[in-house]
Amino acid sequence: MQTFRHRGLQIAYDDTGHPNRTALVLIHGWLSKRADLAAVARAFRTSHRVVSIDLPGHGESQVPEDESRLCIPSFADDVAALCDELGLSSAALVGHSLGAAVAVDLAVRRPELAAAIVALDGVVLMPSALLEGFAPLLAALRSPAWREALGGLLTSTFLPTDDPDLLRSLLADINQMPQHVAAAVAEQMTDWDAESAVAALGRSGA
Which sign does the torsion angle of CA 1, 20, 49, 72 carry? Predict the structure, then answer.
């Protein structure tokens, strides 16, 4: 693990693979961490430079008290700062879930950093019905029973044939995450103007 400081926070990352080859920047999702993309990093580090980041409030990065640091544009700024720190440009931004939205936002803001965007189960353009269905969960995340709400959500997404160790790992991560991080990130995911970002990305030709 390596770290750097950006806007007062210590942010953890890994930088592996071939330093002189095309870089992949791996951006994890909500309730996740860079270690959850370790299999992707292992698969590509023999042929690429692979950089993985823990977004603020996740994994081994510092937890911000200011909830404005827990939104997609702020996360995109953190990833851009890491790219600048490492001298990266024209990287492939690989985002899982929330990370795909962060990749889109970053490509709009700093197109020179993004050669391509790869969305793994990307949460970008969410249908209005899905956004409306989020309301009870968002309310629950601000309640004393927030961990139970998240645990039920995660458990409901797993099939009996899915890896039980992965589910246990995710549930353990919830126990380590502060409530305001889980709640604020979920709230801002529904507030982010995805349509404008995607339209701007299309106009830029990125």
Answer: positive
Amino acid at 115: A
Please provide the size of the chain in residues: 206
3-state secondary structure of 115: strand
Q: Give the pair of three-digit tokens for residue 117.
A: 């965007």
43: Cβ contacts below 8 Å, ≥ 6 apart: none
pTM (whole model) above 0.85: yes
DSSP at 33: -
- 129 Cβ neighbours under 8 A, 6+ residues apart: none
pLDDT (tens digit per residue) in 125-161: 676 766 677 889 999 999 999 999 999 988 998 999 9
The three-class DSSP label of residue 45 is: coil
Q: Which two tokens stand for residue 39?
A: 């299999």
Torsion of the alpha carbons at 173, 176, 182 and 184, rounded to the nearest 10: -140
Going from the C-alpha of 54 to that of each of 109, 143, 199, the distances in angstroms are 20, 26, 27
| Two tokens, residue 64 | 């911000």
